[in-house]
Amino acid sequence: MGRFSYATCYLIAVSFFAFGCGESVVEPILGYVPEIKGFSYTSFTANGFTLGGKNNAVAELKTQINNEWVALVVFEFQSTPQTADIAPNTTGRNPLTGEVWSTSSTDEDVREGVRDARLQDMKIMLKPHIDLYTGEWRAAIQPDDQGNWFRTYTQMILKYTRLAVELNIEMLCIGTEYVVATQSRYTSQWSSVIDSIRQYYSGKLIYAANWSGAHAYGLIQPEFEQVEFWDKLDYIGIDAYYPITNSRDDPIPPVPVAVSKLSVPIQAMSRLSQRYHKPIIITEVGIQSVQGALATPWEYSLGSAPDAVQDNQVQEFYYRAMIESFGKQPWCAGMFWWNWESVRTSFEATNYTPRNKPAAVVLRQWYSLRLPA
Questions:
Q1: What value does the CA radius of gyration of the chain take, rounded to a whole number of Å?
Q2: Which of 48, 208, 220, 334 could form a disulfide with 283 if both were Cys (CB 3.0 to 4.6 A apart)?
Q3: 105 in Cβ contact with 46 (< 8 Å)
Q4: 155 Cβ partners below 8 Å, 6+ apart?
Q5: Domain limits of the chain?
Q6: What would the pLDDT profile of 214-243 be if each residue is shown by its tens digit?
Q7: What is the pLDDT of residues 304-362, one digit of tens each?
Q8: By 3-state DSSP, what share of the chain in percent is helix, strand and coil, each rounded to 5?
């Protein structure tokens, strides 16, 4: 089993799958059997998971993807990158602008999401996100009062820690893509956050670092290489929205070309895993099924743009390329793909979900691999 046991290095072939009643045939997957077969499940309303349960969203996810883990993603907010007013949104309005905004899941709604996942025999990672009312990426968070921000953050994460304990949740993600706020000068504060969680929670802990730096804030180094508290966690987490093409007009390349292009980050992750003796989980990965998305898989607004053109091949290709590159590495414990929304949207045809698209078949193939008895 090699130095690590979390990735099963068994090469196995599977048969062809036809996608639904469509005409496309998805090539079979050859690869490792992942330990963690995950998918992200999000709620953007106070009762989103409850509504998802009524609409069988998790059951449909299980049927189409055959995942064994689900990341329950919940959201809280702060006003600006500099403030420390972390809190759930209970009004559905942005307090800075008055515009319609996402509401935060209630504790009872999280419980409903957990119950639905358990009905499908899924294990759970609870993954709170802090977003900004300014609309900026959370990577920008850089509080004026570090002590106050980390006190408020600790209070927030301990609320979800208590839920994780109550609901026997297997894994807790302590943070996501706080690129500026995970520089070395913040390491001691993050260590204190982790110590506070460990007082109550005996499950697995992970942090979801970004695949890149934050160039707009002068940070070039990828966040996952910047973080210095990996030794205090059970897994290294990386949100991996790597581009494959240089521009939106470039054609879809062969999968081996994409895998070759990803060799540099693969080597960097391998070194990181060896340095800390920790497995890596790809905590987010995905792409919208829209033309041009291979150049900017992280750009969430592409799918809802007026000129968005649906292209399921883009998404199918990206799933295959990510599996063939990261999914086959012995240090990779698994992936959580983005995204399955609890409440369906009007632009689902071009957003991140693989629901009823060929990419779902690609992932189901991989997640259906089993070791021989």
A1: 20
A2: 208
A3: yes
A4: 86
A5: 8-367
A6: 999 999 999 999 999 999 999 999 999 999
A7: 999 999 999 999 999 999 999 999 999 999 999 999 999 998 889 999 999 999 999 99
A8: 35, 20, 45
Helix axes 146-166, 107-119, angle to 10 degrees: 40
Residue 281 near residue 288, CB atoms below 8 Å: no
Fold of 8-367: TIM Barrel (3.20.20)
Burial class (CB in 10 A: 0-12, 13-18, 19+), 199: exposed
Given this model, what pLDDT does residue 31 score? 55
Cα–Cα separations (whole angstroms), residue 58 to 97, 113, 201, 287: 34, 8, 26, 20
Q: Is the pLDDT of residue 37 over 70?
A: yes
Residues in the chain: 373
Burial category of 107 from C-beta neighbours within 10 Å (exposed 0-12, middle 13-18, buried 19 and up): middle
Burial class of residue 21 (count of CB atoms within 10 Å of its CB; 0-12, 13-18, 19+): exposed
Give the pLDDT band of residue 373 (cuts 50, 70, 90). low
d(CA 70, CA 66): 11
